[in-house]
Amino acid sequence: MPIGNFNVIVEREDCSASLWRNRAYDRLKLHLAKEFCELPYMSYPAEAPNYIPKDQFIRYLDNYIERFNIRPKYHTEVKSCTYDQDKQCWFTLAHDMATSVDVRYTSRFLVVASGENSAENIPTIHGLNGFAGETIHSSRYKSGTAYSRKKVLVVGCGNSGMEIAYDLASHGANTTIVVRSPVHVVTKEIIRCGMTLVQYMPMNTVDDLLVRMSNSVFGDLSRHGIVRPEIGPLLLKAKTGRSAVIDVGTIGLIKKGTIKVVGNISTIKGNIVEFDGRKASTFDAIVFATGYKSTANTWLKNGESMLNGDGLPKKEFPNHWKGANGLYCAGLAKRGLAGIAMDSRNIANDILSSLH
Ligand SMILES: NC(=O)C1=CN([C@@H]2O[C@H](COP(=O)(O)OP(=O)(O)OC[C@H]3O[C@@H](n4cnc5c(N)ncnc54)[C@H](OP(=O)(O)O)[C@@H]3O)[C@@H](O)[C@H]2O)C=CC1
Ligand SMILES: O=C(O)C(=O)Cc1c[nH]c2ccccc12
């Protein structure tokens, strides 16, 4: 039956908790099909330190759904989720983008797993509206090919900014990156080691080790404008949600002078960007690798028991993952991969116990 812009509504009762728990995966695969294959770490030259062949990554995803018997619902966008007090269930309106069909799900449980990294966050910067060049958020960045020989400023030195800066420089862009705060640069082996050890040892002991190992790999980067935070990488993640950055080759290019590091932007005038404590430069393009916002509050209609207006949990960790009426959230506590794993276990156990 036609409703608004949509063509057909299909009634379905088979929505399981796992389907919603895996909404993030669903989105990932959708992106993969359309865009991911062109993202920086897929397009690195094969000799780059962390190069992952595209087919290997896709194989990993396929193995994952097979191993856990997940049936992802691809190309589907959730429009709204509302709790129906009378029927005591969650009512979800979704849109199948492949067929332009609307699908209605009813479920006893609803798990919000749409992530902290949902909508682009672009900061307010004086003069940005009048910037004469191109501006793009990291979420829409695909490859450095189009930026060859251009002067590009990357704003933000999280994992996105550092990867994109490497990709731009590898494609011959004259690349500068804004590093405004202290950051922990690590290797993927070091962070993996830390995530394993912290399951058995105190966090500060592990953090000490991670900082020592990282310093021995990268040396003191302060003369290049990169300073370590006072607290270790794992505690920083737990306290502030800020991730360590896995180097993909960017640090080598910074040391060589191929990628330049600058401090915070103070103002933009035409195509001239001025920085704190440093003279201004002109740029052809600015890539905003300035992070994301949750958007769960836009489609979750009566989730006040769990989320605030920013689409993040109201309750403090570790009690953030459960709302009222079978509502849960996984991966919204800014606790990284370990936090997501913890949420998933709590939610699965809670659902299991309420089914008995
Ligand atoms: N290969 C991987 O594993 C990858 C993982 N990720 C993950 O995805 C998530 C999102 O990452 P990402 O997109 O990098 O976003 P992040 O939120 O991690 O980083 C945003 C960066 O932008 C900076 N920033 C924000 N506003 C400004 C501003 N006005 N001026 C200057 N700098 C600013 C922040 O600095 P400040 O700290 O000062 O606020 C921070 O360095 C993270 O968890 C990350 O670890 C992302 C890419 C690849
Ligand atoms: O779990 C997190 O988010 C962490 O901060 C540790 C971590 C796991 N995988 C990563 C990839 C890039 C940077 C940090 C991590």
Proportion of residues in β-strands: 15-25%
The largest sheet has its strands arranged as: 7-16-8-9-12
CATH fold title of the largest domain: FAD/NAD(P)-binding domain
Number of domains: 2
Radius of gyration: 22 Å
List keywords for this structure.
four-stranded mixed beta sheet; FAD/NAD(P)-binding domain; single chain; binds 3-(1H-indol-3-yl)-2-oxopropanoic acid; alpha/beta; 2 domains; five-stranded parallel beta sheet; disordered N terminus; 356 residues; binds NADPH dihydro-nicotinamide-adenine-dinucleotide phosphate; 18 strands
Write up what this structure looks like.
The protein is of the alpha/beta class. The chain folds into two domains: 2-118 and 292-354, FAD/NAD(P)-binding domain; 121-288, FAD/NAD(P)-binding domain (3-Layer(bba) Sandwich). It has eleven helices and 18 strands. The protein has helices at residues 17-21, 23-34, 40-43, 54-67, 159-170, 188-197, 203-218, 233-240, 250-256, 296-299, 336-355; strands at 9-12, 76-84, 89-96, 101-107, 110-112, 119-120, 134-137, 151-155, 174-178, 185-186, 245-246, 259-262, 265-269, 272-275, 278-282, 285-288, 292-293, 327-329. The strands form six sheets. A five-stranded parallel beta sheet has the order 7-16-8-9-12. A four-stranded mixed beta sheet has the order 1-4-3-2, with no helix packed on it. Strand 8 (151-155), helix 5 (159-170) and strand 9 (174-178) form a beta-alpha-beta unit. Helix 6 (188-197) packs antiparallel against helix 7 (203-218). The protein is globular, with a radius of gyration of 22 Å. Mean pLDDT is 87; it is low at 1-42. The chain binds NADPH dihydro-nicotinamide-adenine-dinucleotide phosphate and 3-(1H-indol-3-yl)-2-oxopropanoic acid. 3-(1H-indol-3-yl)-2-oxopropanoic acid is lined by residues 159, 191, 237, 243-244, 246, 336-338. One of its GO terms (molecular function) is flavin adenine dinucleotide binding. It catalyses: indole-3-pyruvate + NADPH + O2 + H(+) = (indol-3-yl)acetate + CO2 + NADP(+) + H2O.
